[in-house]
Amino acid sequence: MNPNVARAALATQENNNMKKLFVIIIIFGSISGGCHTAKKTQVVKDSAVTASPAEKLKPVDSAAILKQQLTDVINTPLNFTTFYGRAKANYSSPQASGNATVYIKMRKDSIIWISITGPLNIEGARVLVTPDSVKIINKLEGTVQLSSIERLQQITKLPLKFSDFQNIILGRPVLNESDSRNYELKRDSITLTATGELMKYFYSFTKSNFQLGQSNMQTRDSKTAMAANIFYNGYAQINNMPFATSRDVAVTGSSPANLQLNFKEYNFNQPQSYVFTISKNYTIKYE
Fold first, then answer.
1. Domain residues for 25?
2. How far apart are CA 158 and CA 198, in angstroms?
3. Does 259 map to a domain?
4. Which residues does residue 106 pair with via DSSP β-bridges, in sequence order?
């Protein structure tokens, strides 16, 4: 085979792999973090004068207490300003497979920055997401895609806002106030199922410290059926926040894929830079 043709074919394959990896990671690959450990409930005993014998003998509803504690954990925002992570990624799909290094930076409520570097330490893509825009530099093609957050929803086939992607990165449930919720207590875990207009969610938390162990998200539209099952492992405490250093992701539907992420570096509340320089030689695409 002509060497130029062989190099072109290899570059095309690497480009396709990078595109596939980008879509997987922007949806679920950057899932990290966890939930606050629940605060202990302080029980104040009633005095003998004000408490009746019946009230004293009333059984404690431990299930209700656990549900309320988990609800409080979910509703309490994480106290952080920035996040940084470097992870080794292995992915596979019917179209492509391979490995890469993924760098993730985030500034709370304003910026999500992702860089994907291939096996030869060559950066293939850089992404900048803000509450109202998405910018993607494809260095393998020499192009830049500028679009709205609504376009990211079309790419991922998920009706998620910036705040939802931020919660995914932090490993927190994506829930709306209008979603119907159901809690179930098991031997060592608490499960939460929620149903919204467009999505269905399943989350499993450890009963001892409310760490997120599994989540499942799926669309309700049968025409665009898609689901992602995610397992979180290897928790570490960083600035009093639990962080899942390892996670396995399985995406099913029209674009099935599997992804394993193992974080080698991670921190919160450290100064970060968000360099996103567009070369004048790149072709800009607007969507």
1. 3-39+64-286
2. 9
3. yes
4. 83, 112
